[in-house]
Structure prediction request, 150 residues.
Amino acid sequence: MTKTTHQPDLPSTTRSLPIAMLRARETMMAPIRHMLQKAGVTEQQWRVLRVLAERGTTDPKDLAQEACLLNPSLTRIMQLLEKKRLIVRKDHPSDRRKVLLDITPEGLALLRQAAPESQAIFARLEELYGRERMEQLLDLLNTLSALELE
Prediction:
């Protein structure tokens, strides 16, 4: 049987950067999702907690950007994380209309509890892929992320 395609003039999906990045993300996220499920948080909630732990008290707009979230999504996530007592809102020191967000001791405890499994996942990836290649990949992805294509 002859395979008939209606392929426009596009590269193979095996050579498509967006598809390759999605496939790599799914490979990477499978064990992470299992870890997050045990921790009782979503991928997005985890990113918010990680950014707050790393940066400290942060403006929601900056947090959304650093955690790769849209502002409306962050609003819902903030409410859930506040309800779980993993983050707290603080008054902005100079603008009463604004709030700041910070991670709570409970949020930090959740990150600390999940850290060994997270480190084991990345150690396994590094073992399979190589430390030098991991560093190169991270450098390339960070450079790519900084581009403005529009």
